């Protein structure tokens, strides 16, 4: 893709455009006891359809990140999560939106995974063996790599 994710300079207007509101997104990094983590593919009809990401979605009015994550993972995957541990926040300036990704780690959930939006899922280690990866998702792989002392490419298809 030609879009370059970047850390936006505050809420500055984009070239030729009006001010863009920041869209908050809650994203869950579900980690199993064996260390593998869950990635899902974006459903048809959404921007970046078919790209792999961590599950989550936009906050609705009045929601906290944790509330939104609990709702989204129930809606999309049919699971009930326990505590969501705030981890990293990343601002990404896409052509379609300026998004603030609020990544949380989740170690506890109940229920069997159901792909309620006909997405695909994969439990992955590093490097990923699925792709392409959403631009705003790539840094997460680097953070996981740093925590795990993993060196080398974290994915093969961007
Ligand atoms: N869920 C998720 N979204 C991500 C990741 N990385 C990344 O750049 N994004 C971006 C893509 C989208 O611009 C935005 C999430 O919006 P979305 O369209 O998936 O949210 P949603 O499920 O609430 O969508 P909708 O109901 O409006 O269709 O965040 C990621 O790892 N996970």
From TrEMBL:
Sorted alphabetically, the Gene Ontology BP terms of this entry are:
DNA repair; DNA replication
Annotated InterPro entries: MutT-like (IPR047127), Nudix_hydrolase (IPR020476), NUDIX_hydrolase-like_dom_sf (IPR015797), NUDIX_hydrolase_CS (IPR020084), NUDIX_hydrolase_dom (IPR000086)
One GO molecular function term? metal ion binding
* Pfam family membership, one: NUDIX
Question: Which CDD domains is this protein grouped with?
Answer: NUDIX_MutT_NudA_like
Family note: Belongs to the Nudix hydrolase family.
Q: Domain Nudix hydrolase spans what residues?
A: 21-146
Q: What's its catalytic activity?
A: 8-oxo-GTP + H2O = 8-oxo-GMP + diphosphate + H(+); 8-oxo-dGTP + H2O = 8-oxo-dGMP + diphosphate + H(+)
Name the needed cofactors: Mg(2+)
Q: What EC number(s) are associated with this protein in UniProt? A: 3.6.1.55
Q: Which organism is it from?
A: Rhodoferax koreensis
Q: Which residues cross the membrane?
A: none
- Name used for this protein in its record: 8-oxo-dGTP diphosphatase
List the keywords (alphabetical): DNA damage, DNA repair, DNA replication, Hydrolase, Magnesium, Metal-binding, Mutator protein
């Amino acid at each position: 893709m030609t879009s370059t994710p970047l850390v936006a300079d505050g809420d500055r207007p984009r070239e030729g455009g009006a001010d863009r509101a920041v869209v908050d997104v809650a994203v869950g990094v579900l980690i199993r006891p064996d260390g593998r983590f869950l990635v899902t593919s974006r459903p048809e009809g959404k921007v970046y359809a078919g790209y792999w990401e961590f599950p989550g979605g936009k906050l609705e009015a009045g929601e906290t990140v944790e509330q939104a994550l609990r709702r989204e993972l129930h809606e999309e995957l049919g699971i009930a999560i326990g505590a969501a541990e705030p981890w990293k926040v990343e601002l990404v300036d896409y052509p379609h939106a300026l998004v603030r990704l609020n990544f949380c780690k989740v170690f506890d959930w109940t229920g069997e995974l159901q792909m309620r939006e006909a997405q695909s899922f994969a439990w992955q280690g590093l490097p990923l063996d699925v792709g392409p990866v959403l631009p705003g998702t790539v840094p997460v792989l680097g953070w996981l790599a740093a925590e795990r002392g993993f060196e080398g490419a974290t994915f093969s298809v961007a």
